[in-house]
Amino acid sequence: MKSGDLTAGSAKLYTAWNKLRLRWEETQVHWHDSVSRDFEETYLTRLDPHVRATLEIMRGLAELSNAARQECDPERVSL
User: What's the helix, strand, coil split of the chain in %, to 5?
Assistant: First the structure.
């Protein structure tokens, strides 16, 4: 991933978050007591909206970055 590549970064975050949620579902088959529910509520449930918001912000920043890159393209700029 090159520096400033928000698309690749957001793809990694999305993949990691989905993998974590899948592993959590697998874990709940064996661990389903009050401690596991507290863990889910304290960490995973609270983190989910932040991850989603971050992904949305990264998408928007990637669009802005791509637009700026196109605007600064030497082949587009006329002197």
Answer: 75, 0, 25
Calculate mean pLDDT across residues 41-63. Answer: 95
**Amino acid present at 4:** G
CB neighbours (10 Å) of residue 58?
17
Q: Which two tokens stand for residue 68?
A: 């700026």
Both tokens assigned to 60: 């928007």
Please tell me the predicted confidence (pLDDT) of residue 1.
Answer: 53
In whole angstroms, give the CA distance from residue 64 to residue 8: 15
pLDDT confidence of 69, banded at 50, 70, 90? confident
Residue that is written with structure tokens 């992904």 in the block? 55
Please give the Cα distance from 38 to 28 (Å, whole number).
12
What are the tokens at 62? 């990637």
